[in-house]
Amino acid sequence: MSNVIYKNIGRNPIRAAGGEGVWLIDEDGNRYLDTCGGVAVSSLGHCHPRIVAAMERYARQLAWAHAGSYTTAAAEELADTLVASYGGAGKAQFLSGGSEAIELALKVAYQYHWERGEGSRSTFIARRQNYHGSTLGTLAVSGNAQRRSIFEPMLGPAEFVAPCYAYRDQRDDESAEQYADRLATELEERILLLGKENVAGFLAETVVGSTSGAVPPVPGYFRKVRQVCDRYGVLLILDEVMAGMGRTGLPYAYLEDGIVPDIVAVGKGLAAGYQPISAIVVSDEIHAALERGSGVLRNGQTHVNHPFACAVALEVQRTIVDDDLLGNVLARGAQLREELAAALAGEEVVGDIRGRGLFVGVEFVTDRATRAPSTGGDQLTAALKREALRRGLLIYPGSGTVDGVVGNHVLFAPPFIATESEIAEMVDRFADVVRACLPASVRA
Ligand code: PLP
User: Fold this and answer.
1) Which one-letter DSSP state was computed for residue 359?
2) Residue 208 Cα to ligand 1 middle (Å)
């Protein structure tokens, strides 16, 4: 009998006992090929020798010092690293998880307006289907019905507009540019409806991850959104907790979209799961407004800028650069998409394969021609997971892909260290899982 509270209460999870590169190993010695880094976390795989050695070294040096009184070389250098690729001058702070980073992003955005005498700007506009965290503040700005669920009565107000989801929402008679224009106009109209003096920021996942399965924006979308935000003094806040830190082949996913956000949040891949750590990077302009104003960041948490976590994250980020892992993300990502497309070409239940780098989604349908969404729901998610485990494969399936209710997908986010043959093996095993589960479940 366990005294641990599990996510699926009453169902015992696998007991993980070890890891080796792209493999996880359970207590009985069974090996599972990891296609998703858990939830897009383990970007260096398991037990990476350089990270393990660094952890041993840093553990002897310093575990913790309170950020209210101390800074450390690790925090300083990690901030330099994150700011160097941000796309402009900025400042970083480190938290423990993605929800905390988004929560801080919202608070800093509001404080920025407040310091400038615009305290009425307290409304955030976010997008339907995007997920930003599980705390009450971040859930309030998350547009996914499934995750808001029973907590709806506890959630503060937020505004939602459409996500950029070309496979579902771009009309046949519309170019990508016209689609992006339509979405930017929706945002602009919402700002005007609310009154720009009431709007603090626009929040979006650059590439939507867990809720819809690696949905990238159409070209030009974020440039248009950036222009709308600038026109009304609304801050652009990008959530790259999942998509950032190399997952798409760039340090930040938005670099491909040719914009710089006012605030970006990163998490999962920052220390690749070797420590729980997340971060926000804010523009110098925001930081300067706080400095000129009250001079105090109105937020404080025990583990801010955690020295050991920062040191480990720094080693992870250095390893990504030294081993040219972003090059591998791009090459293996292209391979993953091509091989999935080839292996699943004959499966009518596979509607779309999309993504960037090693962040790839497979969306299921009941009819490829009409794109009618899968109705397999949570049962299909469970069946896919079970079948994958039986075949020694860890996958990250989801339901509610389209609108939080209908649709199913699987999200691929394998470690950046995956080799060509490991990716090929993932695709082979996954195609078998699809063939074993889907026709019966989805078409029923
Ligand atoms: N934002 C995005 C895009 C996420 O995918 C997640 C977690 O899945 C979060 C925020 C919240 O991060 P955490 O679970 O680390 O609090």
Assistant:
1) E
2) 11
Residue nearest to atom 13 of ligand 1 (CA): 98
| Structure letter (DSSP) for residue 42 | -
Distance 70 CA to ligand 1 centre (A): 28
Nearest-CA residue for atom 1 of ligand 1: 132
Tell me the pTM. 0.97
Residues with CB under 6 A from ligand 1: 39, 97-99, 102, 131-134, 205, 209-210, 239, 241-242, 267
Whether pLDDT at 442 is above 50: no
Report how far residue 314's alpha carbon sits from residue 177's, in angstroms, rounded to the nearest whole number: 39
Specify whether the CB–CB gap between 438 and 65 falls below 8 A: no
**Beta bridge pairs of residue 21:** 46
Query: Helix (H, G, I), strand (E, B), or coil: what is residue 235?
Result: strand
- By most ligand atoms within 8 Å of CB, the mutation choice from 241, 245, 409 for ligand 1 is 241
Among protein residues, the one with the nearest Cα to ligand 1's atom 12 is 98
Q: Quick: pLDDT tens for 198-235.
A: 999 999 999 999 999 999 999 999 999 999 999 999 99
Chain segment 176-208, per-residue pLDDT in tens: 999 999 999 999 999 999 999 999 999 999 999
Q: Whose CA is nearest to atom 14 of ligand 1?
A: 98
Q: Cα(444)–Cα(433) distance, rounded to whole angstroms?
A: 17
Give exposure, 71-95, as e/b (b: 16+ Cβ within 10 Å): ebebbebbbebbbeebbeebbbbbb
Residue 440 has pLDDT above 60, yes or no: no
- Domains present along the chain, CATH in parentheses: 16-47+323-442 (3.90.1150.10), 54-322 (3.40.640.10)
How far apart are the CA of 346 and the centre of ligand 1, in A?
34
* Element holding 361 (H helix, E strand): strand 359-367
Write out pLDDT tens, residues 59-112.
Answer: 999 999 999 999 999 999 999 999 999 999 999 999 999 999 999 999 999 999
Say what the pLDDT of residue 443 is.
42
Q: Which atom of ligand 1 is nearest to the CA of 97?
A: 15
* 422 Cβ neighbours under 8 A, 6+ residues apart: 21, 22, 33, 414
* Dihedral, 193, 194, 200, 203 alpha carbons, nearest 10: -60
The tens digit of pLDDT for each residue in 351-393 reads 999 999 999 999 999 999 999 999 999 999 999 999 999 999 9
Q: Which atom of ligand 1 is nearest to the CA of 135?
A: 16
Read off the pLDDT band of 1 (50, 70, 90): confident
Pairing of strands 372-373, 408-412: unpaired
The atom of ligand 1 lying closest to the CA of 240 is 3
